[in-house]
Design a protein that fits this description.
Shape: globular
Strand order of the largest sheet: 3-2-1-4-9-5-10-8
Strand content: 15-25%
Structural class: alpha/beta
Number of domains: 2
Radius of gyration: 19 Å
Helix content: 40-55%
CATH superfamily of the largest domain: Spore Coat Polysaccharide Biosynthesis Protein SpsA, Chain A
Order of helices and strands: HEHEHEHEHHEEEHEEHHEEEHHH
Number of strands: 12
Largest sheet: 8 strands, mixed
Oligomer: single chain
């Protein structure tokens, strides 16, 4: 893993946004990307088979944006894979900054992330930079996690450091080095939604690439419909997801635990996590029966190794 002199001096950075029916959401993000104090070399939007005129809006309001229009919804995983194919493998940008269509970086986010990680990025084993996702309305943050035969939160003293190293992070906001894509490959499109980013991070870690978390660079990201609720005299955060999302969340975690990392502790973690999540759905979920049904379907399909697209957002639950 070696870096060219040109890459060290002035890396080329592109952004990817995977968008589905986001004509009304995207302008806020695109405007934020255009306002970055460190300019991006290319802004790319993967239109994931939208039917609301997303591509037409971009062509009219943002002609400088590159639009990759997919014929059908390939999910967040397939959209990210398509974007990386173009930006990393075809255009060969040095770093690729990834977003969901509802994430909004601060105007100085890119400059802050690169400045804070200046010495780190000179280490070719650092394959990903990650800001700190924060839910805008609640102020709840989603710190990246560690993998110890399952997902665990880092210790508080680690989280307080300006830069630390994680094992998995959500895709939105992460910045991937081109060499990682060339060495590790693309995200798994057959995951469609959820856990595909964690799987990609674990694949990176298996190749000894590091994931640096830049705490000084928060950015707005929505992880479901997040609310703070009171239960048993304690406050806790609950992220409400549509039933079809519950399917992919449970399926892909089950598949990873039983097929990709089939250690007994990993399986125990997955079973316990899904059981706790099912209880939380019963307590706090808005569509309890539909969500539990999809969760169970996901567990069954994941255990059988059945991946691919089964439920789509526009078809409801």
């Amino acid at each position: 893993m070696t870096l060219s002199r040109e890459t060290r001096m002035k890396p080329s950075i592109a952004s990817i946004t995977t968008a589905y029916n986001a004509a009304h959401r995207l302008p806020r993000q695109i405007d934020a990307l255009l306002r970055q104090t460190r300019a991006l070399q290319e802004i790319v939007v993967v239109d994931n088979g939208s039917t609301d005129g997303t591509s037409a809006m971009l062509a009219e309001r943002y002609p400088q944006v590159t639009v990759l229009r997919l014929s059908s919804n390939a999910g967040a995983a397939g959209g990210w894979a398509a974007g990386l194919t173009y930006t990393a493998l075809e255009k060969r940008h040095d770093w690729i900054w990834n977003f969901d269509d509802d994430s909004v970086p601060g105007d100085s986010a890119l400059d802050t992330m690169l400045s804070s990680a200046r010495e780190i990025t000179e280490d070719p084993s650092v394959g990903m930079l990650v800001p700190l996702p924060v839910h805008e309305s609640t102020g709840v943050s989603y710190p990246p996690l560690l993998w110890r035969d399952g997902l665990i939160k880092p210790a508080k003293d680690v989280l307080q450091g300006p830069v630390w190293f994680a094992d998995v992070a959500v895709a939105s906001g992460c910045m991937v080095r081109r060499e990682v894509v060339e060495a590790v490959g693309l995200p798994r499109a057959d995951f469609f939604m959820d856990f595909f980013d964690f799987e990609y991070c674990l694949r990176m870690r298996s190749r000894k690439y590091k994931i640096a978390v830049i705490n000084e660079c928060p950015f707005s990201h929505e992880l479901g419909d997040t609310v703070v609720i009171r239960f048993a005299r304690r406050s806790r955060v609950w992220s409400q997801h549509a039933p079809w999302r519950e399917y992919y969340m449970s399926r892909n975690l089950t598949y990873a635990a039983f097929w990709l990392y089939p250690a007994s502790k990993t399986k125990q973690f997955a079973v316990l996590h899904l059981f706790r999540h099912a209880v939380a759905i019963l307590l706090f979920g808005a569509q309890k029966a539909a969500s539990l049904k999809k969760l169970l379907q996901g567990v069954v399909d994941g255990r059988r190794g059945r991946l691919g697209v089964r439920f789509l957002p526009h078809l409801g639950t």
